[in-house]
Amino acid sequence: MKLAKRYLLLFVLPALVLYTLFIVYPLINSLFLSLYSWPGVGQKTFVGLDNFRRVFTAGAFKNEVFNAFWHNVYFYFLAAAIEIGVGFFIALMLASKIKGARMFRNIVYIPNMIPLVLVGFMWSLYLNPQVGLVNQFLRAIGLGGLAQSWLGQESTALTTIILVNAWRNIGFYVLVLLAAILDINPSLLEAAYIDGASNWKIIWRIIFPLSFSTIRTLAILLFIWSFNVFDMIYALEGVQAGPYRSTDVLGTLFYRTAFGGLGSSAVDMGLGATITVFIFATIMPVSILYVYLVEKRQRSV
């Protein structure tokens, strides 16, 4: 038994060292750094909880923080409606053995394989107000009145970015939901059809409840990813998250605060670390819930 423990420790040790180096240490360091004011060079100045006071109570900066926070919330709900909601119906369609379903499965996942920087470049061209494909298409089908500067207006910029994000990621959700639907015992569906149930009733009374644990897991993961979003905003609007901060999220606010940038109101790694602590405090309870639900599911199998 002692020998087994020794080998077990030997196998676990490399992963433990890497986890400590790249997860635990940065986390603890960020917590400590949030108590200091530090421009990135020179001496750190201990400020206690003053950074937290600036984040939660100081006028202009607090407004920036909560403006970004509510954008993250909006990002999550709209992305969930599209990527999980629409993804569920696409998965249903692919599970119904329509002609060419295998080809559609591959097509729907292709955007997920495109590098994000390339996605940003492609869509910045497609959405160009003068020569972009989107506006040209609208004009070609007689909807020229809808053509506009999608990324250049406060009212449309964030929603447009979320739609681009959904275009890239929906394939992942479709494949996971498709696997959950195909895992349902076919005899249940056959029995329902024999009893005269309509397609709509079968979806809501059998398929949806039996897929719900997968939908719940995807919703929790999407919440975590939505509060970590940075790259898509950066690829389409840059670190300034324009126009007029209308696409700003906590990730871009952290970047400007910690590393600076044209127009940033504060350049302070300590203050930036405070924003990461805020993100961590938002995500952590949801992450714990996710782990609890996964373990509960494994115990019930």
Automatic annotation (TrEMBL):
PROSITE patterns: ABC_TM1. It is a multi-pass membrane protein. Its main location: membrane. GO terms for cellular component: plasma membrane. GO terms for biological process: transmembrane transport. Residues 69-290 form the ABC transmembrane type-1 domain. This is ABC transporter permease. Keywords: Cell membrane, Membrane, Transmembrane, Transmembrane helix, Transport. The chain crosses the membrane at residues 7-28, 73-95, 107-126, 170-194, 206-227, 271-293. PANTHER family: BLL4140 PROTEIN, DIACETYLCHITOBIOSE UPTAKE SYSTEM PERMEASE PROTEIN DASB. Belongs to the binding-protein-dependent transport system permease family. It is found in: Cell membrane.
